[in-house]
Structure formats: C-alpha cells, structure tokens
Automatic annotation (TrEMBL):
Domain Tetrapyrrole methylase: 2-214
GO terms of biological process kind: cobalamin biosynthetic process; methylation; siroheme biosynthetic process
Coiled-coil annotated residue ranges, if any: none
Keyword set includes NAD: no
Name by which UniProt lists this protein: uroporphyrinogen-III C-methyltransferase
Example of a GO MF term: uroporphyrinogen-III synthase activity
EC number from the UniProt entry: 2.1.1.107
Amino acid sequence: MKVYLIGAGPGDPGLLTIKARDVLSEADVIVYDYLANSDFLDFAKPGAEIIYVGKKGGDHTLSQEGINALIVEKAKEGKTVARLKGGDPYMFGRGGEEAEELLDAGVPFEEIPGITSAIAGPAYAGIPLTHRDYASSVAFITGHENPDKPDSAHNWEALAKGTSTLVFFMGMKNLPHISEQLIKHGMAPNTPAALVHWGTTTKHRSMASTIEKLPVEGPAQGFTSPSLIVVGGVVNLRERLNWFEQLPLLGKGVVVTRAREQASGMAAQLRKLGANVVQFPTIEITPLADYTAVHDAIRRIAEYEWLIFTSVNGVKHFWLQMAHLGLDTRALGRAKVAAIGPATADILREKGVEPDFIPEKYVAEGVVKGLLERGMNGCKVLLPRALEAREVLPEELRKAGAVVDILPVYETVPAGEKRDTVLKMLEAGELHCVTFGSSSTVDNFFALVEPDIIKKHRATVKLASIGPITAKTLESYGFTPDIQPEDYTIPALVAELEKHL
C-alpha cells in the first residue's frame, strides 16, 4: 500500500523522469490529470487500472475532495497508486493537499518531482528565466486569483518594482487585471512580456510584446489557456534563443498507420521534428494459434537453398520459434538469406546473419529481379511471412523455376482504438497528413475511417505512401498519394514529410 505523487512534467514525453516511468510501470492504479500527456499511460503494466480525474476550465471530472478520497480508497485496498499530475505536484498542483490527506488517512506516500511548465515552457520558447544581464531571481505566481476580492494575496508593488522575472500560472483570464496591477504599482508599461501556450508540446507557440499591450495582442493572436505569462527583460532573448519553434514539423498532425510493433520508430523520428504524432495501428501483429508447420520447416531447414525475409516481423517470429526448439542462427546452415529492406537486413544482422542479397528497390518485383539474376531455377526457397500477404514474390519465383514454400509465422488482425482521435483532429483542422507503410494499412485504415470522410478534408490533409504498391492500393479507394519517397524506406518517407509539410 503506497501512493506516489508523480510530476508528469509539462507535456513533452521526453521530460518525464526515469523514476516516474519506473513507478508507472509497476503501479496497480494510475490516477491522471488533464494536463498529463496521455502517452505516459503506455508505460502502465498490463491490467493496471487507469482512472482519469482531469479538470479543464470549470469542467471537473471529480472534485479535489473526490480525488483525495479516491486515492486513499485505492491505496487502502492494498494497491500501489500512481497519482500522475501535470508539471510538478507541489507547484500549484495541490500535491501538498493530497499528501496531507494521505498522511491523515495513514497511507504512506512519496513525491516524485516533475519539471514544471514554468521553467520548461519558457525554455522551449527561448526565454531563460534568469540571465546575468536581465534577472537574478524568479517569482512564480498564481494568476488565478479573483480580481474582485477586496484584498489581494499578492504584493503587487514588490512584484512591479523588483528585478525578478515574473511567471504567472493560470493567468490568461486575468491577464488585463495582472497588467493593470503591475503598471499601477510602478512597472514600466514597455516592460517585455510574453505568452507561452501549451509549452513543450506539439501545440506549443509563443509571442512577445509588452506588459501594457499583451492583454490585447495575446487574445488577438488566438492565445488562450493554458498559457504562461512571463514578464521581465529575459523576454528580449526569445527572438535569439527560440529553438523549439524552429522545428520543421512543429504542430503538424501526422497519423502513423503502421502496426503497433513497427510504429514507434517512425513516430520517434517525426516527434524529433516537432510533429503531433497519432499512432493509429490499423493492424496488430499476433502469433499464430499453431506453430507445428513452422517447427517442421525449421527442422528441415537444410533442404532450402534460400530463405527470403520480407519484414522485420517475419525475422522476429521465425527466430522466436527457432529458440522454442532450442536452436539458433547456426541452424540455417548453408542456406542463403535475402532481406527486403534495410530494417529487415538490420534485424538479421542482430541475429548474426549478414544477408546475401538486399534489393535496390524494396518491393517484391525488385526482389524477384535480383534473385533471378542469381539463378533460381530448381532452387528450393522458404519464405517466412504473414499469414496473409501479396503473392507476387512467390508466383514470380515459381515462374522462374524455383520451388517456393510459403511459411506463415505470424498474422495481422485489424486494430483501431484511435479512430475517434483521428476524427476529432480532422474536424478541428489539426490533422495534416496520414502515412501508409503498406497496402494492408490502407485497407484497414479505410475499413475504420470511411474514404468519404477523408475526401471531405482532402484540401488540408495529405496522404503519404511508402511506395508504388501501397500507392496502387490508395488509388483503389479513389486517392492519389501526395507524398512518396524515391527509396521505399521509413527514413526516406520521413524526409519527404519534412519537405512537403
């Protein structure tokens, strides 16, 4: 029985601490907030209970008293509870109140600090909160104070006349009042001031003005909550140091339709460029129900002159079954190995196998051409692959005189739990591109999202295909891809996205 009050940081998944990640992966219950990046829930162990208690504006899923009672109740059931809060729990996060409630209930707790948005947001906007030429102290202030109450908790004169950088949390609604009070109590109207909206996330943007003009210029430029207000000379550095907003894909919504097991690499590359990535696995890779045929083929591996692997998943599942039989790479004997694509070649190298053939073009037709040049007449070929896949490769090899045994080692099944997310992004104008890594992802995507929905938003949403075969499948649904790399690889596709978006 224990509760961890965890700071999730400001939103960039990379800013979650290692300790926080480890606790999330072990917790029985995760209770999380609106501002906590939902990607962190991917760290949860299978079967963990996940409860959303977020608050947005005046809409409270659960009151603070209800949240306190909930985490106490779950802990007293003997569970390890991770209370995940945006930013840092003790920085305007009411973490102290929750800690006291736990102590009063006799529940042990631990606080895991998070990077507060007050530091990270301005940093991503190019605003250091301290600088020898501008400020040697910082004040963190709630901007949520009711301007109509007779006595303010703030010493406005001290804030206005000090040399500190001022950072206001939750102050957009009261921005005119904050500006008025600072100027009224002695701050120069032309003091630099900035807004940082959704700092560190893919929705991040910022603007700089003066404390006098900010209440008008901020809303005029569409700034709303959640936005930090930063006041002080350090704002002058924003124009020079603003690195995050220079990322080429910042704010661009990109759907990655690859299978869950394959999507993370592409998603990581796109996130480094600033994209708002939605991993939308239209297919899931699953083991077969029966591996008898696979085991038989592995035991007869010496009969084959060529093994052809068309995907990373084919390699993974083939080697898993070799391990199940107590075998390793040595079992391949003299068989030559072909790999379609660099990723497939790389995982073969991890297994200790240097491919004998990697085609220049990573489609079945390119493989056939290269293999035919090596003489396939009479050769016996084993092709480990998905249960359902295109038949071009085995058919062409058979025409050339090869004896081809197709060996299913895994299967794909439809997935699509992010359908609602994609539809909401489309309606909000936040989706800019859908990527397709294979023909099966096209078929499965349009089984989940009707083609007419995409056609409705076609003027603003680009479609990206990894290669010509995938493009042909797109054409069968009435679409011509806007983006397609010359090399049919994920890195090349990402480079094309950067160029076009």
